[in-house]
Amino acid sequence: MKRFLAELGEGLYIESIRKGRGKDTPFDDPMYNGELYFDPDVSVIRLACKNGYDNNIGKPMMGTKCLCNNGICKWTMNKDHENEQQIPVWGGGTFNFVKTVKSSYITLKARISNLVNAESWSHDQVDTVGHPEYLDPEWWKTAPFTAFVWCPFDVTKGGFRGNDGLMTFGDFHYSEHSPDGHLWSFLSRSNTKLWKKPICEKDETGTMVCTYKSTYFKVYADRSTNITEQGPVDYSTDFKTGEDYSCETGILPGHQKFAIQNMINIYPIFENGTFGQMVNYFRQTPDWLADYGDQISPPVF
Q: Superkingdom of this entry's organism (predicted)?
């Protein structure tokens, strides 16, 4: 069992074996001849976090499943509802550039990342077994995608009338926003792609190594002129990339027109239209933002 958990990472323990090996027959029963395996068709295992570890899943328990491709298998987190609607793959909230700060709006040079490096990420579980194309830079040359932006304030409390604020992405078609005004989604236009020409150089061993520059897009976000409604971030054009938190950006492959509404319908933590608990899914949530979902009130309809 220790070896099995080691494949999934630190901080986890098996809360229960719901089905398969270990449920009715001891895991170390001699009939298994000391082999370590689970049958992906019959084994269902429920995991939980050990005390002292941060739960970034947004719920107390999590299943896990075995995914195989060309004979190579690995255990991955089974995000139960994500067969119906995947949570956006978040790229981080400290990699944007704050370009303008006004009392009624801010503008960001927002970084949107593709999934080419997802195989090496520790902060998110992307199904690269079922979708190996995500790891191919050439695939992103033509792939449509949905961009998501989450800011720690209600954008709709800004705008001309003070209750009609918008988030505007010129390179995208607007799609949806959450009732609490925090989460917004946009569909890539025909010429908006997450691909740039690679920069290729030989390393010290003579092997050609290619890197890809980040892709940035300009976004306008309205906000209330009432300072008490502007959220916990004191925005400044002096923010340093990689250090100062602005807004979270993420993506999902394909045009997912109803992703936000689907999340409201499917995920219990979003069912009242409040997306403060999305902080549980971020790449690296700052300590001061960890309890944000408990501090904001549901929207009033």
A: Eukaryota
Count of domains in the chain? Answer: 2
Query: How crowded is residue 288: how many other Cβ atoms within 10 Å of its Cβ?
Result: 11
Tell me, yes or no, whether 84 lies in a domain: no
> Whole-model pTM?
0.73
Residues 279, 258: Cα–Cα separation, whole Å: 20
Residue range of the domain that includes 30: 2-78
Element (H, E) at 293: helix 292-295
CA separation (Å) from 113 to 4, 83, 196, 253? 31, 22, 11, 11
Domain endpoint, select from 34, 58, 78: 78
| Residue 220, strand partner residues | 107, 168
Q: What is the pLDDT of residues 106-161, one digit of tens each?
A: 999 999 999 988 887 766 668 888 889 999 999 999 999 999 999 999 999 999 99
Element (H, E) at 261: helix 259-266
Amino acid in the structure at residue 81:
H
Mean pLDDT for 36-47 is 60
113 and 186 part of one domain = yes
State the pLDDT confidence band at 17, using cuts at 50, 70 and 90.
Answer: confident
pLDDT at 38: 55
Do 166 and 202 lie in one domain? The reply is: yes
**Do 214 and 280 share a structural domain?**
yes
Band the pLDDT of 6: cuts 50, 70, 90: low
> Rounded CA gap, 45 and 200, in Å?
43
Decide if 158 is inside a domain: yes
